Amino acid sequence: MQVAYTIAEIAALVGAQRVTGADTGSITDLASLEAARPGDLSFLGNARYKAKVSASAATAILLPLDYAGEPAPGQVYLFVENPSVALARVCARIEQSLWPKLAPGIHPSAVVSPGARVDATAHVGPLCVVEEGAQIGAGSVLQASVFVGRDARIGEGCLIMPGCVIATMCLLGQRVRLQPGVVIGSDGFGYEFVAGRHERVPQVGTVVIGDDVEIGANSTLDRARFSRTVVGEGTKIDNLVQIAHNVVIGRHCILCAQVGISGSTTLEDFVILGGQSGLGGHITLGKGSKVGGGAGLAASIPAGAYVNGNPAIPYMLERRIAVLQQRLPDLFKRVEALEKK
Amino acid sequence: MQVAYTIAEIAALVGAQRVTGADTGSITDLASLEAARPGDLSFLGNARYKAKVSASAATAILLPLDYAGEPAPGQVYLFVENPSVALARVCARIEQSLWPKLAPGIHPSAVVSPGARVDATAHVGPLCVVEEGAQIGAGSVLQASVFVGRDARIGEGCLIMPGCVIATMCLLGQRVRLQPGVVIGSDGFGYEFVAGRHERVPQVGTVVIGDDVEIGANSTLDRARFSRTVVGEGTKIDNLVQIAHNVVIGRHCILCAQVGISGSTTLEDFVILGGQSGLGGHITLGKGSKVGGGAGLAASIPAGAYVNGNPAIPYMLERRIAVLQQRLPDLFKRVEALEKK
Amino acid sequence: MQVAYTIAEIAALVGAQRVTGADTGSITDLASLEAARPGDLSFLGNARYKAKVSASAATAILLPLDYAGEPAPGQVYLFVENPSVALARVCARIEQSLWPKLAPGIHPSAVVSPGARVDATAHVGPLCVVEEGAQIGAGSVLQASVFVGRDARIGEGCLIMPGCVIATMCLLGQRVRLQPGVVIGSDGFGYEFVAGRHERVPQVGTVVIGDDVEIGANSTLDRARFSRTVVGEGTKIDNLVQIAHNVVIGRHCILCAQVGISGSTTLEDFVILGGQSGLGGHITLGKGSKVGGGAGLAASIPAGAYVNGNPAIPYMLERRIAVLQQRLPDLFKRVEALEKK
Q1: Segment 224-243 of chain A within 8 Å of chain C by CB
Q2: Which member of A29, A172, B126, C108 has the greatest number of CB atoms within 10 A?
């Protein structure tokens, strides 16, 4: 991480109630108790790893107040109410240095149309393109090499990382965070087979991204055939996810990496999709439903359902069948034996 | 969509034979009968949704000539021969405003080698790179931040969206359309295991893309080990698709999102691959064959075949087995009962 | 390939011991015996394809010394000790022309922070961004439109193709090769569900890429929650692969296209993952273990294991069960017959 904090700085940051051992070292990275090397800060987040503390090579360890033990020479123990909370505080501090607040303004290498409206507090980094009619809200950051198409609108406090494309007329809410390479508003995949050729069906809708949505690297979200492809407030999408045209995703959903959702499918709120799962088109997943990793689902499921497998079936049944499948060789033998009786 | 048309403009555009109701409103978006809100244009594309017309909140509705009913106050009915055709006409008009014809010329921020040949009618947008020996054909558009490598050739009337990479010596035909982030001509994935290490096998072939091919966002097509990776005329490829080296894809195929095709596999014409399906290497898929979504195919299939599942087997058999698998718990019980007799 | 070599150049390059036929033609491409067209160079790499030589339309064919036969009119045979080695020599020559050594220096359109350290022998191509504190090692090439974040470090002799993003503080070793669109150091996907919303867990670790690693187009590697996401020396990663936070990949592994690895999973050395396979989180794959294409693995496997299917089980068992599953319709009938007895 190439950070550098003194023990005293860490102690102050976490509000250490007691410090035991060598408090003169410096901290340049974080690591688990096992993986830690000299220079690392570690922590005992779960009492069942207590035995790993004394063997850890960490320079400093965050420990609960009731931990009994002495640091090795050159090592320091920092006693705090809640080591996990203390670690989170250190992480938050490091995060600020990873993503420092960038000064408002437009980098001279950016190509911003005179007809674009960039808020005075926004940051448009090097080599970005902002087209005619596009709007960038207060405090939003386009890190570098971001493309914002005609009449697209980006809300306030957004962070758009390098290489993202927000195509014409698409809308982002407040505090949206796009990892590098995200594509918002590519054409939906719609064709009609006419006279032996696939003729493109115009895709003239948009994509609307709600507040506090986060989208992972190189994920793609297609614009609607008409009307809107929607991602609801607070939903989090991992890397390399594909969202087809006219998909409507509710609020506070979780889509793990490499998920694919076919056209016009609806996710209600709080849906969770495991990695690499795939959904057919024109189906609805009820509130709080869950799809296992790698599952393939072609039919609607009710609120609260949990399905797995391909084709996806209720989770417990799928687990049971997976076990029975491994006993198929035995079953065939048993049937053969019965036939010989 | 942030468009705005008067009712009169819509009526003229679709050639309405009769207009009933409030013809003074304006249209700012399109939506289905159910989803429509005031300001939207909707349509009755299929007679079985007739009952939804009277409940629709759309400001204007395209209806067949024989529809009987009266618009609500403030609403307008536009009667046309074929509402679907009428809607398509509106979409085509909106599409022109989404993707207006860009003026010919090279944006001053683009980096175009003096040894590149850009047709005078082509548009090279901001921050594009066009290397030595590359050619851009008449009427083609590089929207922004597109990379065209040495000696690559782009035909006439192509549309290349932001962030695409067309690597050295690759060839695109006429009217090719690449969504944002497409990579054409990355190295094939070929290694030889020598003395405990994977040594790279040079990948010195190219990629050749036929006329009227369209490729979805962030899809990747590797250059051949030698000779050509080929995508035939009229084939449509969705987002996040992977095409390995020396794959040969025929004409008018459909590859849905997240498909992966291993090296040296051949697709004949009119093949359809469902989303997330994967093909092994060195196999051939016969003309018009079809692979279900999520299927995994490791062997060649004849013309017209339709396979599903992983490993992929004929579709009807796979469907039958999927049903029987769910009855496995019962089957085990029945065998147990027989054994007890 | 748009190369052009005379027969004499090829003969000299491969050290032909004998040349028979028309040695005045020129070679513009490579192809297999079957696919070759006039102008192509082909080769007999495997004796069992001997019968295809006489029917080949190649202009020149590399043949083993003991091959008996005469070239067609206008065709030339080049006899060499080992045709495969000879072809590799031709490929290596073409490769040099595909990827010529670029002159050191920083393109005037690149945006390089005064606080970055770019070695004098490195090449920073057009429209790259290199932020404060970043380092680019000797002989490394950023081809074009590459983003290198604050304090990121790129070793010596690396080749970074267009559109790659190396985020802040990430580290690349020597001779690393990134195909276009690779993202190194996107945020890990970590949230805590608090009061009905997913709160982001800060992702403050980095990504460390070992020497001689190669990564395919549009693949994504997330930074660690804290500490490091690691890819070991010599490992090769194909296109559209997803590596989650805190994954540790050993040396000389092979990850085929569209693989996904969940957080904190460990691959020991020489592991091979088939295309589209998916790994759950917090598991370990032993040295030299192998996962079949499309497989889904949620549990650790020992060194040397080979698993397949979803859920993944030992390969031989999975193959046997796949066969038995196709006999399920028959099995149900047999059990029915037994019940009727």
Answers
A1: 234, 236, 238-240
A2: A172
